[in-house]
Request: fold
Amino acid sequence: MTAKGDDRPTIPAAETGSALVMVIFIMVVLALLLAALAYITAQSNQNTAYQIASTRAYWAAQSGAEWGTYQIAPATGSAASQCFSPNPAHPGIGSIPGLGGCSATVACSSVSTASTSSYQITSQGACPAGNLGSGNLPVSAMRNVIVGVTTQGNACAACVASCVTNHCGLLGICDNSLKSCATACSIPSKDVTSCITYSCSRIFGLLFCDTNGLTTCLANSCAGSGGGESATLNYWLENP
Reply:
């Protein structure tokens, strides 16, 4: 079909604007593809940041667990006779290379018998990864490590600890039955007397004692062990 007096073809009315529709369609598809690509990139960046934070939190938890285990079972000397204080504790791990800004919360629980104490140490490491920018939530991660330790002492050491607990009260005032109780733990009488003389003072007829020092002295007088305890690592669990 041609216009009168003009050899150029004309566009039918039904086809007018079809090219514009096609252009708009292509632009919409490209916009959707760009939006999807931006979302995937943001998610990838956030996942990477979380993985890094999770790895740092893992080592923060490990560091806290090692600290807590050392409090119960040090490399040298005797094992502890009770959980550390304060409990939970927050050891300073932020100065460790790679763990800047991270923290560890270390808690301890224990169950004791006459000569055995079982400890469970739970360490939670937390590390931030910072803010990834507008539209992204701040990323942080937490990891947990649980450690089980058993300390094996001797009945004598447990016995003297019980004597001091039962016969010494407020302000470290101990009654006269302390000596007989400690002697009944199979400690020679002269050693009991020596520990009381070293750790206690009699004031106005009352026996004031340094209960911690007295307990240590009496435990060190136990035959065969020096009052020390050995420790055994039962488990070291890494929870996500």
